[in-house]
């Protein structure tokens, strides 16, 4: 599978920013069918870093309402990638 199709986007939130600073972990939204080995290889090839471990989890979509109309966000898969000591990925370098 193509690494660009495998990793959809980085998950940027307050919690993931703290994880990045404290534990050198970065979270990504990944393809639902991807496994840990594929995610590890994709991150190493795309960002040229050494990955120590990969944890995955399925995130259930939230139920949202707009008046009487009830909808649901899509379910997605999240990967928490722990980088080797000394490695780092910067998403907002120029800011």
What does this structure look like?
Helix content is 27%, strand content 37%. The protein is α+β, with helices and mostly antiparallel strands and 95 residues long. It has a single domain (3-83), classed as RRM (RNA recognition motif) domain (Alpha-Beta Plaits). The strands form two sheets. Strands 1-2-6-3 form a four-stranded antiparallel beta sheet. The relative contact order is 0.24.
Topology of this protein?
Layout: H1 3-6, E1 7-10, H2 14-23, E2 25-30, H3 36-47, E3 51-59, E4 63-66, E5 69-72, E6 76-83
Antiparallel strand pairs: 1-2, 2-6, 3-6, 4-5
Notable traits:
single chain, about 100 residues, alpha+beta, Alpha-Beta Plaits, four-stranded antiparallel beta sheet, two-stranded antiparallel ribbon, 3 helices, 6 strands, globular
Q: State the shape.
A: globular
- Using the CA coordinates, give the radius of gyration: 15 Å
Total strands: the figure is: 6
Oligomer: single chain
Describe what is shown at a glance:
It is built from 3 helices and 6 strands, in the order αβαβαββββ. It has helices at 3-6, 14-23, 36-47; strands spanning 7-10, 25-30, 51-59, 63-66, 69-72, 76-83.
């Amino acid at each position: 599978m193509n690494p660009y199709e495998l990793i959809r986007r980085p998950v940027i939130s307050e919690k993931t920013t703290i994880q990045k600073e404290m534990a050198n972990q970065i979270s990504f939204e990944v393809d639902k069918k991807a496994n840990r080995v594929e995610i590890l290889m994709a991150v190493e090839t795309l960002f040229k870093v050494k990955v120590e471990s990969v944890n995955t989890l399925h995130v259930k979509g939230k139920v949202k309402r707009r008046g009487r109309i009830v909808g649901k966000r899509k379910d997605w898969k999240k990967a928490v990638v722990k980088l080797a000591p000394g490695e780092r990925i910067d998403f907002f370098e120029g800011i």
